[in-house]
Structures are given as C-alpha cells and as structure tokens.
Specification:
6 copies of one chain form a homohexamer.
Chain A lengths: L7 H4 L12 H14 L5 E5 L6 E9 L5 E9 L6 E7 L21 E5 L6 E2 L2 E2 L4 E5 L19 H16 L5 E11 L1 H12 L5 E5 L6 H7 L5 H10 L4 H8 L4 H4 L7 E6 L7 H10 L4 E6 L8 H16 L1
Helix pairs in contact in A: 2-3, 3-4, 5-6
C-alpha cells in the first residue's frame, strides 16, 4: 500500500469535521458518575506462574454498570513499595492474554495493568476473560463497532470507555502502585482508549497511543480499506437511512473531538501507509490534543506501526514523565 | 473454485462424525417447554405499503425466553379464508428486510412469515428489527457463531433455534393461516433453521432447505474456506484449549445429528462448488434425514446454489405437499 | 473500497469531457428509422406458471435490424383494462430470467416488460433467450463492450440501444398497457439503457436509473477498477493505436452526452463507493440530464447501490409520475 | 499453487470420462468437406518490414464457411526453394500479432504460418485481424467458450477447428513451402488446436502441443481454477439445466476423445502446477494419443509451462521429424 | 485455509521420500570441523538498556568460515552464578531484534542467546546485524533459499546450520551460563535450525521446535502455498533442468533426514492449517526424530501455530529437562 | 488498475525531489576508473545452436571489480563486416536467457549484446549465468534492492551500473561490431540501466528505455503498489531509523538525477496504469533528460507497457540514429 492519504504537509494541520455535541461533557460526566456509584473495590489474587522476575495478579474491578472487568496486574519482583504503573488497553478483538505474556514494561521496572475489553478476547491469540452482559440490536456481522450505535446510551463504546476510565480508578487502589505516577498506553483500539482516558481524566502522568483507532470517524469510515472502520461502513451500506443517527452517536466517542479536553503529556505514533487507521484520522486526534505532545511518524509502515522501535522510544520517554 | 470436496459417489453415503449427545432430546424438550411457558400470543398489525396484490403485516411473537421476535406476515390479497403458509428463515447476517420485499411465494398463492434472526439484520441489504438481549463472553470478531459457545445453555443458536420453532407456533395462530398446511423454508443459515425446525416439530407439511448451513460442524469447520464456519475455526485458533468444549456444544445444534428426528417431506438443494457450506456437510444432513426426501444438486454453483431455478422447482414441488 | 472518487462538492458540478459528435442526432434518427421500417408487431403468448397473482406473457418484438427480442410481459391479475407499465432493462450479462422472477413492481399494480439484452443472459443466474445474430472482429475476451467498437455502425451498443428504444414502441401495442403511462427502469447497464431511451424518446412518463453504466466513457475507462469498463481498457491495452477510434464510437452511446436530450422526469441513484460505475461518471449523466430530476446518493455502497431501499423510494416516487 | 492434481503415477494412466459420440467421425468429415467445398486459394502479399533476415507475407485463406482467415507467412530470407513449415495456432484471446513478431522458428530455418483465431485477437498484446461473422445466443460474459455451445453445429470451436485444419490445406499451396514437411504447433488453446488438427489430418510430419487446452472437458470444467474452462463452469452456473446438452457438444471437440485418431509424431509438454489446463486433462489427451509420442513434464510450472526451455527442446526435436 | 494436508491418522506415520546421502555425516563432520578450526572465543559486551530485570549483552562468536555472528545474551538480574540457557534461532527474514525485545524466557529464570541469521534481519520488524559475506549465483528474487543451491558446499544453509551449531559452542563459554543445561528453540526457520542443531550435537538438554521449516523439502516444495518453500519452487520454475541437482543439495540440510541422528528430548508443535510449513512436512521430521519426543498439534491454526499457548506449555515442560 | 498517478498535464512538468549529491560525478568517475583499471579484454566463443540466421557467441567481459559478466553476442548471419549493435539490459530478476532467445533485433540487421545482471537470472524463465561475488548485510527478503544500501560504496546497483557501462566498453571490442554505432536498450530495470549508461557515457548513438525502473526513488517508494520499489519500502518498514541513509545512497543511482548528464537521443515509453514504475517516476527521468528525446505514452497499460507496439516503433526509430 502506498502513502495514499494526505501529504505530510497537510496532515500537520488537518482537523476532523466531526463536531462536539453540546452535551458531550455532561454525557461523560453522568456516565462516569453512574458507573462509579456502582463500583466496588478491585479484587486481587496472585497467580502462580513459571515466571521468577515478575509477579502476576488476577484483578477484577468495576466498570460500566458495576460489571466486573478482568485484568492482569504485573509487578517486577523485588521492586520498591510503590512503582510507577502503566495501564494498558487492547487492540480490537484482543484480550488481556495469558499470565506469562508480560510485554516490554515490567522488566523495565514498571507495574502494568493489562485490561480486558468486554466481550472481546478471541483474536490474534490474545484471549480475554470478560463478558459483555449487554445484548444489542442488529449489528454488522455481529461486530462490536455497531452494537447499539443508534443510541449513544446503548453504544458499546460508551461501556468500553467507561471501563477504561475506571481501570485507572482501580489501579490506584492496588497494593504496590504509585497512584501519583500512572500512565496509559495502547495500540490501535488500545490507543484510542488511552486517548479517551486522557480526555476523561486529569490525573494521568503520561499517555502513549500508537496508531490509534476511534479517531475522526467521518473520515475513517470513508477512507479505511481494512479493519474495524469498515464495520461502520458495512452497517450503513445496509442501514442506509441511519447515517445521521450513527454519526451523532459516534461524535460522543470520537477522540478527534474528545482530545481537546486532554492535558497529560502525550507520545503518539502514526504510520503513513496505515490502511486500518488512516494517518489523517490519527493526525486529527493529535492536532486537536490539548496537552503537551510529541509525534513519531513511520513513513513506510502500515498498521503494524513502529512496533519494537516505538517501544524503545517509549522506554526512553517514559522516565521523563513517570519517574 | 473447483469441485473440491468428495466425489459425488462418496457424497451419496457420507455421514458426519458428530455424535448425538445422550441428553439431546431432553435438552430440546426442556428448552422448548421453557420458552413456550413464557409465550404470549403474537401481535399482528397491518402496514401500509404501495403494494396492491399482497397485504403485509408486522408480527411479533414470543421466542426464546419469551422475548419478542419480529416478522413480516404476507398474504395474497383476495386469497381464501385460510391459505397454506411458508415460514421463512434468513441467511446469516440478514433480517426480514423491508415490507415490500415479498419474495417469490405470495404471488403464487402462499402466505409467508418472514422471520427475523435476533441480533442479526445488517448484512446484504436485508435489514432486521429484532435485538438479542443476551450478552456474551469473548467471541470471534463479535460474530454470532461463537457467542456463548462454551456452554450449550448459553449458545446463541439455542436461542435462534427456539425462535424458529416458536415461529411455527405463532404462525398457526395468525388469522388467515391454514394451520394444517405449514411449510418451512430457508437458504444457508435459513436452510439450517428449516432443518432444525423439521427435527424439533412433527406437524410440518413440507420442508425446503437450500445449501443449508449448521450441518456437520466437525467437517464444516476444517473444510470451509468462506463464510461463518470460519468464525468457529477462528475462535479455536485463539482459544486453543476449548476445542472439545466447543464441539460438545455444537453437537446440540448440528443438523446432521438432529436430522434423524425429522419426518416431514424434504426438498433440499446442494451446490458442489460451495465453499461456504461444503457439499459433504449438506449431504451429511440429507443422508441422515428421517423423512421422505428429494435432492437437487447444482454441480457448477458455489453458495449461491440454485437461485431462481430452485425457486421454480419449489413452486412445482410445494403444491404436492402443501395443498 | 473507500470513497475514492471526487468529493461530493465536486461531483455536484462535474461534467464529462466527451463531446457530442456533430451527427449524433442524425445517427440515432437514421438508426431508429431503419429499425422501425423493419419492425413487425409484437407477439404475445401467455405462459402457464404457478403464480396466481401475476400473469406472465412471453413477448417478442422487433429490435435492431428487425431482429426479434424476447421479453416477459407481466400484469397483475385482476388489474384494470389498462395499467401503467414499466419497461425494464438488464444489468450486464443478465437476461430476462425465468417467468416467476416478477420483481417488485407487479404486486404494486404495475405491468412490466422485462427485456432481454441480445447475446447476453448467462450471468448471475438471470438467463436470457435472445441471440445477437451479428459476428464481430477481435474483441476483448469476447465481451460485448468491444464488439464492433471500431465503427459506430457496427458497435454492439448501437443494436442494444435500438432494441431498448423499440421495446417502448412494442409495449405500447401490448393489450392491457396504458400507452400514455410508460416508465423505463434499469440498474447498471439497465440504468444506462433507461437513460438512453429517455434521450431518444419524448413520450415517457418517468425514468428510473440506478447506478447507471454507459456514462462518461473517457472517465469510466481510466477510473473503474471492476466491471465492464475494464473491457474497454483491456482492449486498448492491446490495440494501442485505436484509442481515438474507440473514443469516437463511444461518444455516440455515451449517456453523459445523450442526457442533454432527455425531457422526462428522472429518479437516479448513485453509490459513492461504486468501483464499477464511478460516482463521477454517474454524476456526469445526472448533471447533464435535460429533464426534471432527483438524485439519491448512497455514501457507503459499492455497485449494489440502494437495492431494496431504492425500490422502496421508487414505489413512492412512481405514482406521482405514472398515475 | 501446489501440485494439486493427481500424483504423477496416476497421471501416467489417467483417461477421460468423455465418450466419443457415435457420429464423431462423420460430423468432422462432413464439416470439413463442406468447408473445403467453399474454399478458394489463399492470397499472399508480402509486407514491408524493417526485418532483413525474414520475409513476412500477409496471407488469407478459406476457413469454415469459406470465410477468410488471416495469417502471417514468414520465410527465412535466402532459404532454399521449399522449406519445412510450421503452422502455428494462438493461445486463447490472442491473434497473429504484428508482422515483426517472428517467434523462435524462422531464424532456425523454418517457414511459419501464424494463424489468427476468428473473433479473437485482443489479449496479451497479440492483436488479430480476423472477424467471426457468426452471432450467437447468450454466452458467459460473451466469451468464446460458450458461443453456440447448445448445438454442435453452432459451436464456436467447430468453426475454429475447421479453420485450423484448413490452414494446413492452405499452407501446402503457398510458394516456398515443402508440402511434405508440415508440422503444427501451439500453446494452450493453440496446443489444443494442434492436437485437433493432428486428429483430423493424416499428412502431418510432426505435432507440438504445449500445455494444451480443450482436452477432457468434463474434468477441466470442475478442476481448473483459472482460465477459459471457467467460462463453461460459469455458463452452467446460470444455465443449470443445460449440463447434458453442453457436455454433448463438447464431446465433439474434446481432444482427449479425438486424440485416438492421430498418427503423426507428437512432442507434448505438461506443467504439474497448471491451474488453467490441469495436468490430468493434458495427460488425458496424451495417454489417448494414437501416434508416436514424447512427453516433457515441468513439475514446478503453472500454465507458463516450459517456455524457452521447451522451445530449445523443440528446436532439437523438430529436425528428426521435419527434415 | 482448511485442513488441506493428510488426515491426522496418516500424518502420524508419514515419512519423507528424501534419502540420506551416503556422505551426509562426513559432510557435516568436515564442515563443522573446518569452522571450529577457525573459531576464536566469543566477545561479550554489556549494553545499557532501560531494563532493570534483565541484563543484555552484545555477543559475537565465530560461525561458518570463522565469520562473526551477532547475538544478544540476556540474563535475569540477580540470578545465580550459572543458569540454564536457551539458544534461540530466528524465523525467516528476521534478526535478533533490539536489545529490549527479551521474549518470554528471561523473566522465567533462563538466560537466552538470541542468534542472528547471517544476511537476514529486515523482516517483520526484527532487525539483524550480521552480514553474510558470501556472494552467489542467480537466485530466485535474491532470496536465501536458493543461494548456492546448486552445490552443497556453496549452499546458504550450510553456513547457517554451522552458525547455529557453533552458537552452542559459544554459549557454553559465556560467563553465567550453565554449560550442562543448554536448550535450543526456534519457530519456523528457527525451529528447523533447532532441529538441525539437535541432529548435529549430542550435548543438548532439550529441544523445542515450533512449526519448523526446512523439513521434507520434496514435499514442502510442491505443497506449500505461502512462504519460503515457494522460493525453491520459483527457482525451479525457471531453472527447469536443475531439479535433480537442487534436491541433491537439499538432502544435506533436510531435517526430516537429519532428525534420525538426534537424541535430546524434543517438544515440537505443528499446525494443521499451516500453509507455510505443511503439517506433513513437520510430521516427517517428528516421526523420524531419534530422541524422546512430545507433540502438540494445533488443528485450527495456520503458521502462527500455538503462539502464547505453546509458550505456556514450554514454560511448563522446560524445567523437567533443563533444571 | 486505473490511472492512479498525476494527470497527464502535470506529468509533463513533474520533477523529482531527489537532489544530486555534490560528489555525484566524482563518485561515478572514480568508480568507473577503478573498474576499468581492473578490466581485461572480453572473451568470445561461438556456441552451436539450431539457428541458421543468427550466430550466437558466449561473451564474458570485465565489470565492477574486474569480475566477469556473461552475455550473449548475437549477429545476423551474412551481415557486413561491422554492424550497428544494441546492448541490452535485463528486467529485474531476469538473466540473459538461453542462446536461441534472440529477441526482435537480430533479424532486423542489428547485432545485440544481451547482458546478464549479476546475481539475478532466475525469474520469468530468463535464466542467467553471472554470480555476484559480494555478500551483504541484512536485506529485505534477500532482494537486490537493499543489498548494501546503507553505504553508496557497497550498494548492489553501484556494481550493476558499472557492469552496464563496461558492457559498452566491451561491445566496442567485439569483432563485427561497428563501434561508432552503439545503442542501449532495456525494459524496466533494463530501461533504468540504459538510462544510467546514457548518463555515464558520451559515445552512444541511441538510447531506448521502456517503462524504466530506478527513477525518482523518493516517489517510487511511496507510490508503487507492485514490484521492486516495494523492497525498499519493506526494508524501511523494519529499519525505521535508516530512511535518511537509504535516500542518501539512492541519490547516487537515481536516473531522475543522473539523466541531466545524458546527451544521446532517447526514445522512451511510459504506461499510465503502471503500478510497478509509476508514470510520474518515469516522467521525472524523461523531463530531466539532457539529450534529444521522444516519448510514447500508453494510457491503458500497466507495466507490460507497449510490448510489440513499442518494438515496432523502435524498429522504425533506430535506423535514423544508428545507421
């Protein structure tokens, strides 16, 4: 795939056409307040693994509707009493995985909370353990993108964003976490969730989002050639009269809209041959982002983005913000 | 795609390796009894359409869990007091469609009940109007094939089969239906549902199933190269330890297993280049079918099957069984 | 496929670069006069079908060169003496189909004439019954798009357009047709034929064209990524010195050129992700259309276009123009 | 593509299931006699080219129905009075090409007659100059494979085979040709034509057929995944009731049937990964071939076959049979 | 992709048709002896990383021809004086990666040596740092599979296997490695290398090979539909006369041949939908393996194989053999 | 593929963004001087072939580093003492082929030197016989495009360009060649080599380059969707920090940069649907070309370009410049 989107000079200033609904902040304030009212403390249970350098704990915490969300809490063995912690969100269809899948952070001295996505967790080998207790009306191939998309109250991503925000509430209550030094991180859908949490919280030390999804829906839906934006296009190819209704709902979860609310430092990556999350949609979120921000662009990558190179950069960048 | 499956001589005697669970009949008897206990009468409301030759009524009836399922009840204008009626089920992802999509039966003098598939109805332009109120654990890309597949009680197709069986309960209560002359029909998933209803009822006059899905899962899952059997394979490619559990659940909804219970006359079609519902899986159901049966094979078709040619055959075959 | 063509703002004013040949009107006047001089009355023979609500008649009428074209004439049983009638043309490779394939119009009270495309009728299950008695020079994969394309007199579409125009001559002679209330309709190639007939007749009450093909060849040939425009590009990729000659011929059958001559009310649909009939080529015809006109745009559809939703709209729109 | 067909051990003995019709020989005897009765002598006109080592002549000769077929007659400059000559037939969609496309034979001392395929000649850059004056009924995408396939008298390949046989009649009349030393050669469709001519003549010195098409239709139609056998499968996927009729016609032009009549020495090549002409279909013709025969198998090639390596082998093999 | 290879019952006993050359053992004994004669001690230099739980050292050691091979030596911080160590080899085109890519073993208490593949290291984001100083004759697309394949002495894999064997020589000399407890591991090409090392050494404690490549070339070359076996098929599709020569060379590096020499305990995985390393080729190596062995089969996976599930199994299996 | 690149009006003036390095001329002067210092005279050995009109000689000459490059020298039998000669270069992955593959020039009275590309010669059936004795660091899939690309001194194309330039040194020493009338020609990579030779020599009579590769790397790398430019993009998708270094090297071999140095008459062809060598990259070289020049554009062709039509044009154009 070539560099098919806007030239880099235009990417630098591109803005989404999506508009913030008048009640955007109220919608999220109410949604989070309701969920928090139903929350109970997280449970933590250490699991036995063959690992000797990292402790793994099975955590459950209250998300949307008070429903329990599963996560792995991992902590370097022998670390100090309270360590900086990164809350991580999953790519589309993925789950928290198996206990020994520790990722690149714990051996660098960080605790992590690897959070499930409700109902997801069967793709790419990363299994999940958290159901989504909510049924739904007709959805495209059953996919998550269009579940409840006709009403903002019913939309799947209202629940998932709430879970993501409350994951930070929960992590701050975990033993051994330094509640003053919390970062969020994710790739693709996980990057979108990290951005959303950045917009809906003011207590984060750092935000890392890689090739984030869930940004600038009006453009993503008509430009992406792979991946979950196509579910929305697919839904609207059948439900031809619901375009307006769908766009209305999506405006509440569009990170190109929400990003203006964010204040924490951001390290974001974009791939200029990305056919899943078109680079303009990622720039739409980055350009709108309210906090200090740094961008790493990968001109020859598709949605795999920076991979290990971005990890290496993050390991350098994190200490400046988290320690 | 070539004729990639067994040669026709072997298709003629092929049997599934799936085994009927000991409690198969009890499972379905209990499931249906529970649902019927919660049922209330169907509602019927005529809708205004530009059609002059066919009346269209918006019907809702009680399916699994007493939940309301939507359907279109169509009746030839000026037909007699009670007409033979065909209950029709939808292909995967499809819904009952729009009121004017009358299909090929009403102008031939039959009433039809076009039944929604809960939660489906966003694919191929055939929209649906019936939600599935049940959440679920991790499922492959969110698709219906793997929702609740780890427990037979939770499996999506337990609900959908129940809806399909109760659609016949409902149609017999509709004004203008000749309750003694009921046929079922469907294509692909709809054909699988028609077969399931044939196995779970003893009051049908005729069964028509075209290139049916939901037959011989153990083979479909390892042979299909397109379509929803791949969701099961995809799920198990992540959930590598759940193969046994999944096969156990599937045995309860496998029409190659259930078909031995059927008694009504069957007209079935199979396509020998079908990559979605491999011909051997269709033969597995046909060969096991307990009632009188007739097969039409399309040697050069993929999953589109016989289309209009099969319709023409059905219009010839139906009067012998339904009138 | 994303929205790959011009943005909607530019579509609204886009015009083809094709120019009307000086003798365009004379060419068609002569062509039609010659064909009409050879015409004999249509034959009509009722066929026995299992349908009770619709009568089906096998019609043949004189097309180009006096050659007989087959069609199905369908009429609602019990309709008045003379009913408004829609002449329908087929998509590329399709034929008039089987007698029972009645489509969405007859049960709404309209008669229809479902017209074969000479030589076509083997694609998508819609069989045809009309040969094209004319041989041809080298053509790309044998396809119809390049048969005789080097001379306007020999071009296949000269014959097909003539057949389409004379189908209306014929339908007006059929018993039970209200000759004052004739509409034409088609999808893709059928939509192009409907537009051509609208340009070459002045007695139509209504024109409906969906995602029409055969519009703005100079652009279609270099932009389409699927479908029959590629036959032209394919032909010219071998016959590299014939570009000018081919464009010259095509100008005589280009509906973006012919459309200025049309006067009847038009309901047209376009799909913004259409890779077969690029939206700009459809707009080129719509923007040039001489009569009253209405456009329905489907932003998330490929060449399937509006399908049942467009049918529903047509059923609402038709009575205003045909009754 | 892997070696997907029968293992080599089974290829060695594989036979087609197609049966010779009772009147096969009479059909061809009559067909050829009729055509010869209409034949007039070939015309030969030297064309000016930039070539200095090879003369090129534009030839036309009488084929089926006395219709003129175009060909290039090429002759090494300075060769003796009469030279051995190879009549060459074209691959599907190709034509005789441009005058300077001399191929590999003339500089080796052979004259060649490069024969057009009527109506073809727009594919792969090899243009043709010979029309097919015959119209036809519905054909799949307009392709040649299904033109007139419902009646053996009307079938396109009856005409093409006749042209191919009469090309040898013609070449023997050309000045400078040694009429006692004529070979035929072709690749793919051209290979099928060479085999057909070998079966329908007894005066050839040598036959070379590479990855021949038009052999063992019953198997080719259900096994090929690319190329023109798919036109037959495509046609029958719409014309579902004509399978028997089509197979009946094809038996008259099936080289796996005709080959038993051949007597001239044959050099044939087959490619074991050929998805256009499955190796079993090629073996079906080879195994049935009546004359002396030699096979070269290319285990790792698809339909490109032996290319230059086969040419080199042919240049070694030809002198033993042609000089 | 379905399960396209042999049924599981036949896989269990399948053997390669490749034969051990008479001088196979001498060839490898000489090759290794020559390389060892040129070897100098490994160099080890600790690199500074942001990791706190794992030390990373940049190692170079002598491989084939005394040429230096790069590797990462990683060691859990705070581990005992000498730890069990796993030597890991890379998948095709991959390299040792970046320092922080520690994989799943070090936090479980194992040291690892992540060995470069000479000349490779630009694929999938896993960069490498080791050149291959040897030029070569014509090779298919330049790929490694066909470099020098015409002479066993020149073949690329002679060098790469030698590097892999000498990596174990080297690791035993590294400070902190328990030279009595060495395992080898790899996936795909890495799995093939692990098997080769198992055949060419007698001092290993454990061998883990996942979906191994480089097994049973005669079958892999004609059955695989993706991946590097296709380079061999591609090469032979041009070099049509070199099939015998190529197979002769490949027999020296075929792990289905070499495996009979192996004695160390093996944990192997196979994926039954693997289109890159067909399951029969993997079984050919497993069935021939000379030491104690255990197989994990993944019926629904393509070449990704068991991924994290296989890792979890390996973490359980390793202590029984390595501690 | 549509015409996806710039419109023709913009192509006419498009310029590359690549800049000539300050030491560009010195780099090539030094490189060629070094190679010439090591050169020894070409060897010529006639090979026996079945051809009677063309003599074929096996030539080897000194290329980069004095290494011997293989070529076929072909000469019309019976031509005068010294004939105009065309040096021809190969497409990517191809070699000089077999002796009898004479191409279109020798029978037109030209001698040709068909030059191998070192290390290439296994693709498309055109085999080669020249090794590249140089190893390399990590390269993408082993392909030639990225071998040594981090240092201009090590880059594969430094060697290949030098070979191409010295092929002309060699051809002028061959018996029977008119050293005053030398042309160069190639397609794709061969076209790029012809352009490079045109820039690095001042003694050519004519240059013919068809759909040339190796022009305007900065654009080719981000726009091509097929072919070897993708190797560069692929390499940089892993080696994410080496973009600058790679572009620096490429500037030394970019024909859109070098072309300003050329002085010989040029006949160039471009294809407007070329996905391998985007038309803008070809125009970048043409627009910069320093000598007299003529362009033939093929609007409906992909990378196959003008094929036989371009050959015919070349046969007309050559005599004006070479005789």
């Amino acid at each position: 795939m070539p560099q098919y989107d806007l030239p880099e000079s235009e990417l630098a200033t591109y803005r989404t056409t999506a508009q913030a609904p008048d009640d955007l902040d109220a919608f999220w304030a109410d949604t989070l307040a309701e969920a928090r009212a139903l929350a109970t403390p997280p449970t933590v249970e250490q699991v036995k693994t063959p690992l000797v350098g990292v402790e793994v704990h099975d955590v459950s915490f209250s998300g949307f509707g008070g429903e329990r969300i599963r996560a792995w809490y991992r902590r370097p063995v022998g670390a100090g009493a309270e360590v900086p912690t990164v809350v991580r969100y999953q790519g589309y269809t993925g789950g928290r995985g198996l206990p020994h899948q520790i990722g690149f952070l714990p051996t660098a001295g960080y605790a992590t909370l690897e959070v499930d996505s409700r109902g997801q967790g069967s793709g790419g080998g990363n299994v999940g353990d958290t159901p989504d207790a909510h049924g739904h009306g007709p959805s495209y191939l059953g996919g998550f993108m269009t579940r409840g998309v006709l009403r903002k109250e019913d939309y799947y991503y209202r629940r998932l964003y709430t879970d993501a925000v409350l994951a930070v509430d929960a992590v701050k209550q975990l033993p051994g976490v330094d509640a003053e030094r919390i970062a969020v991180h994710g790739i693709s859908q996980g990057g979108g969730l990290a951005l959303a949490v950045a917009a809906l919280r003011d207590d984060l030390s750092a935000v890392m989002a890689d090739v984030p999804f869930l940004c600038d829906f009006p453009r993503g839906m008509v430009l992406a050639t792979d991946g979950p934006y196509l579910e929305l296009a697919g839904y609207l190819s059948s439900h031809r009269d619901e375009v307006g209704q769908v766009l209305e709902t999506l405006a509440y979860v569009d990170n190109a809209v929400l990003a203006t609310r964010a204040t924490a430092p951001l390290l974001l990556s974009v791939a200029l041959m990305d056919t899943v999350c078109p680079p303009s949609t990622v720039h739409a979120a980055f350009n709108a982002y309210g906090g200090p921000k740094q961008l790493r662009s990968y001109p020859f990558n598709n949605h795999e983005g920076g991979q290990f190179h971005q990890e290496a950069l993050q390991l350098e960048w994190l200490p400046d913000h988290l320690r």
